[in-house]
């Protein structure tokens, strides 16, 4: 029943006079009681009416030809939509108890006998009309309540989602704050050592042994700072997908063995029992990045395993994969941390043990580098104190022999090529020039791009080390100008920059440089880069 409809009454009677009498009586109260009256001359017509309308009550004659009142009532109540319509049977004779039972079994709500008493008819019909109106009112209230419930449910879901997002943001913010605090701590430690060692070198009473030890401290702590910066940059690049892999077939067993040997040479493995089982396993990967992955896993095992503990390294090759497993008997990983052990920041914020230092981003970097190689990494632990196992799976490839690199015999300090150093950082320029001079290289210096071009034109050095971020004109423009001038076009140009992405290397080479070195540059790297400058042109090519 539509919300704007009045309750409807259906009168069913095959006798036209009786039908008219009943409908006329009901019509006179229709406006007062707010209902409308419909009529039907047979059971079949009544069923059609019921299909079209919802009725508050049906006055149904018992004795009708064809389909009598009982059959009509049964048919009406068999239909789900009209099953609850109250029916008042109207009969001309006094029904016995059997007829009454039969009527009630067919769904009768009441009986009326003819001749109908108007007041009784009005009273009974008014009750059912009022009941229909009340039911309609309840139905509307239920619909509003349902709608309101739906709205409240949606609002509650939204609030819950917003609360979860807020808590997640707060957790991430807190983790980042802890990470930044940790980063400050990790940076200040080596800076403090460098500062103290530098001051010690400058003391008048410092003996040679003390000065040598201070220099070693400065070198070691500078390398530590460089590793921290490299880890941060690599993680950022890996997260943003900006690391480009220089892939080639490589035996992971050889690479892991090399990393382990480096750890042994630096004393990192002292005090631990290592079990190493490395079967050949070839992968298509970037050797530098694979070394990072392996070093981080070894470093993690050593860092969180007490002295005297066991560290097992196992490498095997299956039909499709190369599997590297690093297992330790260390402090283990709590169950609540295990699902987050590779997460960025979270690992650093809730690290197992901060006493060993470090940023705690090594495992995050491992996961991203492994995924860039098309592999996967997983962690397992039985909980605190029960050690941990890290497993890396990477697609295997067919063995290949890498071309042999040309061997250069180390030369003496005589006949070294002249070098022009173009660098605006005075301290960095002075230190690098001093180191190059100590290795026998004639060195000229320039503090900006324009001075560098002028020095190259006048001095015609064999090689130029050019910083990219120069005042005046940058390193790219320095290279372009030197390449345009026939007099300086043959100078070996080596770019020095703090940017190491593939895009940075591309820009460097396009500008005319021969080589791209990322700061900080070790002396070994410089010597290797400058070795080509002293070779004959045919060999250098």
From TrEMBL:
Does Cell membrane show up as a keyword for this record? no
Chain ranges of the Histidine kinase domain: 182-398
GO CC list: plasma membrane
The GO molecular function terms of this record are:
phosphorelay sensor kinase activity
Identify the residues that the record assigns to the Response regulatory domain, covering every copy: 8-129, 418-534
Keyword Transport in record = no
Q: What is this protein called?
A: histidine kinase
Q: Which organism is it from?
A: Telluria aromaticivorans
